[in-house]
Design goal:
- It is a single chain.
- The protein is of the alpha/beta class.
- It is built from 15 helices and five strands.
- Strands 2-3-1-4-5 form a five-stranded parallel sheet, with helices on both faces.
- It is globular and about 50 Å long.
- The N and C termini lie far apart (58 Å).
Length: 320
């Protein structure tokens, strides 16, 4: 079975099994919501959609302020365009461990959404939230493998590199044993109102008609995907829906169907499907989850981050 056929089969079976069971639930509102995905998977868009409303706040990739990996992360780039954004002033006066707690209190929000995506940050964020008795939800947003590969291919990257990254990220996410719910990006952009309503229902965030039109909100997003940030300032904003793939991309992609990593790719898709918001709430995922752990790569990432941070500080000091 091809990758596309596999994805469609899971979707069809799920819809047949779950028709008519979308009754309202009394779900505890998640105070801190982490959006988990590799780059170019729609995390910034979902962050802004969930943050569109009076009681929620989109933090964007705030983890890069505390743990910079690029030189641009040494200056907070707010989506409002103000280099000295007053909204962030009171939030960034505390250490990383207390940031989400401070953000909730500063704006009296019911939920803050964090799309930093780095797994070490998400693991630590879950620990911090529990330490402060905050309810937490982790949403994995994912593109079908072909669409994800195209997102990288059109940026000049190889399909093999893209799918290797795809499998590695979601496998590592599964290794963390964090309570996860998921939503497919392909379906979210095709049916934004319906799928966003399911996401909101799963994490206890109120949905209202038009919540998916995130550009109507006043936003103060830290960093995030450049194209999605441009949508906020566009005179003709819209939710991007993928067009037909170029023939040369399709040819390259289909030539890779029998490579050794295709089976792990299917396993990842199956795992993500089982966690779909159609049949699992964040609260239920929390109850079903085993105690989460910090795998070996967590410590490797942590030491790499510390080394990069020290190196960047030395470079900045030399320039000054």
């Amino acid at each position: 079975m091809t990758e596309v056929g596999l994805v469609e089969t899971f979707a069809t079976n799920q819809e047949q099994n779950l028709q008519g069971v979308m009754s309202p639930l009394n779900v505890t509102t998640a105070s801190v919501i982490f959006i988990c995905s590799p780059s170019f998977s729609g995390s910034t868009m979902l962050d802004l959609m969930l943050g569109h409303g009076p009681n929620t706040f989109s933090c964007g990739e705030v983890g890069f302020w505390y743990r910079p990996v690029e030189s641009r992360h040494h200056q907070l780039l707010c989506s409002c365009g103000d280099s000295d954004c007053p909204v962030w002033e009171s939030m960034l006066t505390v250490p990383a461990e207390k940031f989400h707690q401070q953000a909730l209190a500063a704006g009296q929000y019911a939920s803050v959404i964090d799309s930093t995506k780095r797994l070490a940050w998400i693991i630590d964020g879950n620990r911090w939230a529990r330490r402060h008795d905050q309810s937490v939800a982790n949403i994995a947003i994912w593109k079908s493998p072909q669409l994800y590969a195209y997102s990288w291919w059109k940026r000049g990257k190889t399909i093999e590199a893209a799918l290797t990254r795809y499998v590695r990220y979601y496998r590592q996410l599964a290794e963390c044993r964090l309570p996860i719910v998921s939503v497919c990006y392909d379906e979210l952009v095709e049916q934004p109102a319906e799928r966003l309503q399911e996401v909101c229902r799963s994490v206890g965030v109120p949905y209202f008609p038009g919540k998916e039109y995130f550009w109507h909100a006043e936003t103060h997003l830290a960093y995030g995907n450049a194209n999605t940030r441009q949508t906020l300032a566009s005179t003709t904003p819209q939710i991007y829906r993928p067009a037909a793939y170029p023939a040369d991309f399709v040819e390259q992609y289909e030539s890779l169907q029998n490579r050794s990593w295709t089976e792990p790719l299917y396993e990842v898709v199956a795992w993500l499907r089982r966690a779909d918001v159609w049949n699992l709430t964040a609260e239920a995922a929390q109850k079903q989850a085993r105690p989460f752990k910090r795998p070996f790569w967590y410590y490797r990432q942590t030491w790499k981050r510390i080394w990069q941070s020290q190196l960047q500080r030395l470079c900045l000091r030399d320039k000054s």
